[in-house]
Every structure is written in structure tokens, then in C-alpha cells.
Specification:
The protein is α/β, with parallel strands linked by helices. The chain folds into five domains: 1-36, no CATH class; 48-105, SH3 type barrels (Roll); 112-273 and 408-550, Vaccinia Virus protein VP39 (Rossmann fold); 289-401, no CATH class; 580-668, no CATH class. Helix content is 32%, strand content 22%.
Length: 669
Amino acid sequence: MADESNVLDQLISRIEDEILRARLAEEVDLLRGSRRFGLVFDRHLPESVRLPDHPIRKGIRVALRDESSAETWVVDHFTDRTREVAVLRGDGGERHVSELIVVREFGEPIYPGLRSAERIENGPADAPWHVVINGENFHALQALRSTHRGKVDVIYIDPPYNTGNDGWIYNDRYVDQNDRAKSSKWLSFMERRLLIARDLLKPTGVMIVAIGDEEHHRLRMLLDQVFGDSNFLSDIVWQGGRKNDSRYVSNGADYMLVYARDESALAAREIRWREEKPGVDEVLAQGAAAWSEYGPDESAATAAMRAWFKAQPKDSAVQALSRNVWFLPDGTLCRDADTRSPSPRPNLRYDLPHPVTGEPCRMHPNGWVYSKATMQKMIEDGRIIFRNSHTDVVSMKRPLEQTSGNVVQSVFERLRTHSGRHLRDVFGDKRFPFPKDHEVLMRWFRLAAPQDAVIVDFFGGSGTTTEAVMQLNAEDRGTRQSILVTNNEVGATEAKKLRKSGLHPGDPEWEERGVFQYVCRPRISTVVTGERLDGSTYSDGLSANVEMFDLTYLDPGMVRRGHEFESVAPLLWLEGGARGPCIDEEPDDGWALTDAYGVLLDVDALTAFAAAVTDAATSGTPPAALFIITDSEAEYQQAVERLPVGIETVQLYEDYLSNYTINVTGGAR
């Protein structure tokens, strides 16, 4: 059975000779059935996206807004100057523009812009802004490849699991379990996005992909192909509770596949990939209290700690730490070192007098571990434990923090019900069925990302990643920045109800039920401000800055006439680090500069621009990036020579939309 979305099947269908057409189709089916090795799948036709807000213009591909037909046409011309009735090429006839919607295929060039949907300034002026983009994630990734190539520390995504019931969309159609090509469509869908995502990562960057049983095996092979199997780091199992929909074994596991952009570069990065044993925070807090109360009386402080341990329930996490606990003179909480390691060296033999009895302390038959001079220094630093008698074993102290970390395990348990309850608490009602757990994501970001990381999620859904990053920053005073891409799709069940009511994509009643407008945007707004949409109080809010954008598709002609700078400006702001104010209007002086980035639009204003940048650099606050807008390589080089060394410079074309379909030049000098 032919599949109209498959390239081979479509080409075969164009063969006029019926016998040849049938023979070729038979041979292709045989080839498909004989594939045995590696990940081989049909690469389907490029996807398309419906753009309800895009104006109808000549040469644009359109479809019927009411979805009564899957056919598309190109607008040939309009019947008069009012541009209300379009004449469609082929058999499309004449249609009023209100009946039409723009359709853009992924193979066509796009000219993206960003239009602010909501801006929440609730954090420090110098803090990075978290960014949420509502739009088709493939096109958003294309834009980010220009603004963030090689700049991202961690990418986390939770893509459609392709269960057959999750209703993900391919080419404007929900894919269900009856589609025989659902796995190859899913792989085509994922491959296009992963190839761009790889380009966003730093050499030390990491990608984490959540997945279920259905496509786990195929996804790992796809990631091997995209990232290289040598960059595989781990296959993490998340035990989330029992599943009652299985006929045989209740497998409550989901997975997180972790890959490095370059494992050899990652190995040198100072990211812990370790986490403290449970109970460490409690021990540290209790230890500080004991030392504060008893001061230098180590025995009394230790006795207090022992009493506290003894009072804990036997199944308490802190019971695992109920070994000998001690304090250094500076109050650092310690525990006994393992006296069996390192192995003593037999030539280190000398008398070590006990500080109370004066008698030589008991020495290991093989001698002391350290030289006499080193031992004396350690005694002076308070790092040697002397027991009550010189006949007891002498041991060394070391900070508890140095012994409390374990390499993180690849299996962890966390009930999925927690995340659902959390989101219901945020909204005051239930409006999103299966959100990811922000505390789980905090855990993995804490392990995998530095405190100033850029973290991207291009399957943003309900906005869990953004909340996780903001909550983690609040916990440890980090300056991590999240860039989240979601869309405003309506779930399959809800879409069916809306269509029965005569509503279609683009209608206001339809759009207000989309995941961005109905879930992601209000969630992030509530978490940051602490106030729900109905005015009720949720929390005290978070110290964070967030701006949410709609991805727009611009008319190149309008841009060339200087009418769309406001939509392009946020892309420059993003590329400059998304800090501080955005230069959102073309400056009258031909240049503009903030603490984070600068833009030179008129090379004739280079002298003033260069002077302002130099002043900023000498004052200790140089901008992170400078954009020189010119088509002339000579003018660009002239500007670079006048600017301070060490600041990243980027040449942008005067037709600056082309920068997001053509690679930019320039870089750090």
C-alpha cells in the first residue's frame, strides 16, 4: 500500500506506464522488507505548517481555513486592488482571503521574526532573561542556529513518544497507531530537529532526551547516527510508578538518553555528575548548631551529634551517616577517614606522642602513612583524631562534603503524580494531563549544567523546563538561562471537540485552548509573579525575568523598506545574550549600544560607535557582541579595526533577514 507522504511512493505514482509503475512499487516493497542492519527508515516529505496570522499575498501557498480539503494552491493574483479575492493557480478558482490560510513547507526559505507576547521583569537588571518562543519548533531551531550556534550547555527535550495515542502532528495531521508509517514519520520528524540541535551545543554540551518504550530503541540508534555512538553517556531509567494499562508486566519506566556533543571535551569540564547522599544537609545544619553551642569542646559537640543521630527514625536517610562525626577547629563537619587506605609505607616509623598521656601512640605495624613533618602540620591543622588513650587507633579527619558524593545512578524513582499535583496547584484547576516533573529536571540540570548555563528545550509543552531552571537559580543563586520553544497546538481530543463545534485553527476560540496560551504562558506567569490569572495568590513569586514571544514570518519586501526592524530586533538581542534592554527601534544616530550588545546600522556613524564601545570596555563592562550591518566586507573589516580587541563582532547583511537563511561571518577577534 503506497504512502502519499513518502518521496519514493510519490515519484512512482507519477510513472504513466502502469506495468512499470506496479513493478517498481513491488521492488521497493521488497527492499523495505529486507533491511536488516542499522537504522534505516523512509525519509518522508518535508513537513508543513499552517500560519493563521500570515497575510495572504501573491506567490504564497495557501489551503482552506476550514480544513474541508487537504489540497494546497499558490496565489496567482487578486481580482482587484482591494486584495480581498485571490485567484488560485490550477483548479483552485477564486476564494475570498478569509477562507484561506497560509501553508509553509519546511523546504521553503523562511524569514523569521519575534513578536513579544508578554514581558515579566521580576528579577535583577543584570540577570539573563528567560525566553519562551511560541511557534513551529523546526523554524525556531533554524533561527536559534544563527543566534546560538555552539553556545548551549544543555538541551533537554521531551518529544512525542509516538505511542499511537498521544496524537502528535505530522504534516498537519494527527498520527495514530493505525498509520503503518508512524515510526518512520516519527524518525524523519526527529532527525530534522536533532541535526540542528547538535549545532547549538558547545563542545562540552550535553543533550538529554526523554522517551518511552515505543521508540526508545529507534531513538538511541538515531542519536548514535546524529551524535556518534562514542558520545553516548547514559541511558537513565525513571521509575515513575505502576502502569495499569499493560496486559503482561506493569512497566512504569520511562527513559532519558544522554549524549555529549564531544565526550572527550566533556571529560575535562568541571561538572560534578555527582550528588550528595541523602541527609547531608540535615547533618551539616545540626553540626553547625552543635559547634556553635559547644565551641571548641569537640567531645561535647560530638556527643550532641551522636544524640541527634540516635533520635532519628531508623529508616531515616540520615541514619546512613550515623558514623563517627567530628569537627575541625574551624567548625567544618568531618567524619573518620578510612584508616585502611592509603597503604602505610614501612619506612615511616617514629614516635607520635599522645597530647594527653604523652606516651607514644599506637602505630600500625607497617609504620605511619605520612612523614613526621607532614604529620605535625596535620596535627596543627586539627586534622588528626586522637582517642582517649594512646593505645587507640589514630585516624585522619576529612570534610564530610568530600566523602558524601556518589556518582549519580542511572536508575531513580519518582512518582509521576507529583508533577500533576504541582501543576494543579499552580493553576487551581486541572488543564494539562501529564506534565514533566520540574524537580526531576532540577536534579539533572544541577548535575549536568554549570551555574551560568544556557539550557534549551524545543519541545516545551507546559513550560516545565523554564520553571525548573528558575527554581534551581533561586535555590543556589545561579544565573542559568532557559530558552524554551513550544507551540499552540491543541490536543487531539480537544481538537475533535472544537471541530464538531465548527471551529478551526486560527479561530480565536481555537487558539485560546492551545498549549502555549492555555498552559505554558499562564504557568510561567503565575510561577514568576506568584499571582494566578484569576487574581488569587499562588506564591511569593520568583526573582526572574522572562519574555515570551510569538514566532512570526515576515515579508522580505517590508523588511527591505525598513518596516520590520521591531520584529527582527529580538533575534539580535537573543544573539547578544538576552540581557538587559532590547534595541527594538532603528536608532536615529545609526547606532545603539547597551551593556550587553551593540548595533551599527550606518557605517558613517562608526567613529561615534567605536568611541562608545571603547568607553564601555575601559570602564569594565564591555558588550558581549557587536553587530555590524553592511553588505561590504571592506566596511566590516574597517569597523573591526576600530573596535576593541576581544569583543565578538558579527557581520549582518543589510537585508538582515537573510542572516537567518545564510550563515553569518565574523567572530571573536
